[in-house]
Write a structure and sequence with these properties.
The protein is built from six helices and no strands. It is mostly helical. The chain has one domain: PGBD-like superfamily/PGBD (Muramoyl-pentapeptide Carboxypeptidase, domain 1, Orthogonal Bundle), CATH 1.10.101.10.
C-alpha cells in the first residue's frame, strides 16, 4: 500500500498533505477508510499528514470551525459532525464530536501543516 501510494503521489505530483479519505471529503456521508486505517503509519512514510504531539489548547468552537474549513472540511455541516470525522482520522480513540483540549490542539496542528509556508 505504501509503495503504491508513493508511486501515485510521484506520478501525479500530489502533495502528501493532499492525500485524503472519503470521510475527509464527505463528512457525515462517508466514514471510510475508517478509524482503523493506518494514517499515522502512512504519514511516517511520506503519505499524508500526521500532526506531531500538539500541546493542549483551550477549546474555541468558532476558531475550530474556521480552521476545519481551512483544512477542507465543509463549513455547512454542524460542528460535532465535522469534529467526529476529523477525530476519525486524527484521533481515532475518540469519536464523539466533542471539542476538548486535545482535539482543539490537533485541529490547530493539522491546520498549521496544511497552510502553505
Amino acid at each position: 500500500m505504501i509503495a503504491l501510494s508513493r508511486e501515485i503521489i510521484a506520478r501525479h505530483a500530489i502533495a502528501p498533505v493532499n492525500v485524503v479519505g472519503h470521510s475527509d471529503i464527505a463528512p457525515g456521508r462517508k466514514i471510510d477508510p475508517g478509524e482503523k486505517f493506518p494514517w499515522e503509519r502512512l504519514a511516517s512514510e511520506g503519505v499524508g499528514l500526521w500532526p506531531d504531539g500538539a500541546a493542549r489548547k483551550a477549546p474555541d468552537e468558532a476558531r475550530a470551525a474556521a480552521l476545519l474549513a481551512d483544512i477542507g472540511y465543509s463549513p455547512e455541516l454542524c460542528l460535532p459532525v465535522t469534529l467526529t470525522e476529523f477525530q476519525r482520522r486524527y484521533r481515532p480513540s475518540r469519536l464523539d464530536g466533542v471539542l476538548d483540549e486535545e482535539t482543539m490542539a490537533l485541529v490547530e496542528a493539522v491546520a498549521a501543516g496544511v497552510r502553505p509556508a
